[in-house]
Write a structure and sequence with these properties.
With 196 residues, the chain is mainly beta. The protein has one helix at 4-11, and strands at 13-15, 19-24, 29-36, 39-55, 58-74, 77-80, 83-93, 96-99, 102-112, 115-118, 121-131, 134-138, 141-148, 153-157, 161-167, 172-176, 180-188, 193-195.
Amino acid sequence: RSNPEVAKKVSRANLTAPTILEKMEQFEKIKVKNISGDIVVNDISSERFLVEAVSGDISVDQLNTKQCELNSKSGDIKTNNSSAKTLLIHTGSGDVGVEDCQADELFASSISGDVNVIACKADKMDVVSISGDIKAEFDKSAQCRAKSTSGDCKVTIGNQVDAVVSSTSGDVNVRYIGEIGLEMVLSSTSGDVSAV
């Protein structure tokens, strides 16, 4: 554990320039707020890790935490090679990319942008885009949902995965690479549905 005063300062930092955090392990909670500028995080260990950006991209690599929340009102969010019990990622306007991550619960969403979740393992996975496409691999998870209101869903599903894949106005394309799970629901109100 670090000096409480130092931890307090880090948790309340309001930043307006590109921000880079690397190799920090001594903090129980890290909270970063950025008004305008990108946030780059590499090799961080913390009990809780929270990022809030108003206008800027967020890039996280090699994060190890129990609870992680990455939020941007306008900007892309990418996280790679990270682990958390709970991993929550949301952007209002921008793309979300999650690759090679592990979590008990993984939630990735964008209001206006594409969401890609690749090579991730989670007991429960939720991938949502209001206006954008979804590309997801559900081969290492137990319960999964991919939902787009106005966009296509392209999903790979592996062994014994229960999955719900839906789009209101877009195509649903599902590829199986193993045994089908107990429940599989595929739907599109105005679009094609295919499963191979």
